[in-house]
Amino acid sequence: MTSLLETEDETMLRDAARGFLADAAPVANLRANRDQGRPFDTGLWREMAQMGWAGVLVPEAQGGADMGHRAAGILAEEMGRTLAASPFISSAVMAATTLRAAASQQAEQALTAITEGRLIYAVALDEGRKHAPLNTALVAQKAGNGFRLTGTKAFVADGGSAQRVLVLARTAGSAGEAAGLTLFDIPADRAGLHKMARATVDSRDHAQMVFDGVEATGDEVLGTLDDGWALLARGVQAGQAAVAAELLGVAGGAYGMTVGYLKERKQFDRTIGSFQALQHRAAHLWAEIEVTASAIANAGRVLDATPTQAGLAVSLAKARAAQTVDLAVREGVQMHGGIGMTDAYDIGFYMKRARVGSEWLGDYGYHAAQVAAARGF
Asked: The domain 122-229 is classified under which CATH number: 2.60.40.10, 2.40.30.10, 2.40.110.10, 2.60.120.560?
């Protein structure tokens, strides 16, 4: 949000992303996608890939830009500002980070395909209403030289569009234990894998995935058998930081739209932005956004510098972002008055995106608990 938090290269990246998205992906595009029943504009995603965004976390050896998590956060934030719909977080952030950590030949080939925009990944993680990956109960039972996967994953972001899926399954232990979880990388059209679209208020691509004896080979195990969570956790943290950044962008977009409305709307022959009570509310929101921007920037930098110690910074950023975006969209809708609740005005889209994004990969309560635990409470 402020230049004091950014290097010169990061400011250049932000300016380029903001200019591109303002022209190519205004909020009107989300409305068009919704009305046409498409989760995102595939042409827009190809353009993003050509600009290097899909490879922002991919090593140069696989054709990526390798700009780091802070850069990925800047891109996610600018997408949030215009509510640009794409598989960026699922594929270019979560899957790319996980595949990079796997460091296998197959993973390197997948990273190249992600970078070029030829391959979209989804991450099939949670099974209930809330984020609780260690509660995975989907079973991967040994069958000959491979496995059979049986169970259900709920709320899989970009699940309807993905060509491949990273799925967390239990090969040992019991629900609640990190040990005994294995990560598989399988095609999304594998026999026995049934995808059912799940409508969400933000008009984005989410699916429930039912695994009915889906066969997976030993070669499709990503990382180490029974230790998949250690690998996937890196991708999940990267995703949490990126979602937090996107929510910051949603808050900033809602704030900008609201301030614009305050400057235009008149009552009693005066713009309503001249009313001191509304000025105080707008100023308070601006301050909250600025403080949250610092937490978001810090999370990206810690992920880049010391990823194994990023848990506290990432959870603080996600909790803070959830709080701030909730304030931003509520204030936005309220200060628009009655029209803020109508579909004719775009401010409602910001509230819908905020609601879904705040839940994805852990809500405020989940991350506040993580922060408390890290601080010894």
From this structure: 2.40.110.10
**Residues 6 or more apart in contact with residue 109 via CB below 8 angstroms:** none
Task: Fold for 3-120, please state it.
Answer: Butyryl-Coa Dehydrogenase, subunit A; domain 1 (1.10.540)
Output the pLDDT for position 264: 85
- pTM (2 d.p.): 0.96
Between the CA of residue 120 and those of 88, 104, 114, what are the distances in Å? 9, 18, 6
Separation CA 218–CA 222 (nearest Å): 9
Residue 1 has pLDDT above 50, yes or no: no
* More confident site: 3 or 211: 211
For 22-34, what is each residue's pLDDT tens digit? 999 999 999 999 9
Using alpha carbons only, give the angle 366, 371, 136 rounded to the nearest 5 degrees: 40
- If one counts every other C-beta atom within 10 angstroms of the C-beta of residue 244, the result is 34
For 7, 19, 24, 41, the CA distances from 44, given in Å and listed in that order, are 27, 14, 7, 5
Looking at the domain that runs over 233-374, which CATH code has it been given?
1.20.140.10
Task: At 191, give phi and psi (nearest 5°).
Answer: -55, 135
| Pairwise CA distance, residues 119 & 110, whole Å | 8
Model confidence over 289-312: pLDDT tens digits? 999 999 999 999 999 999 999 999
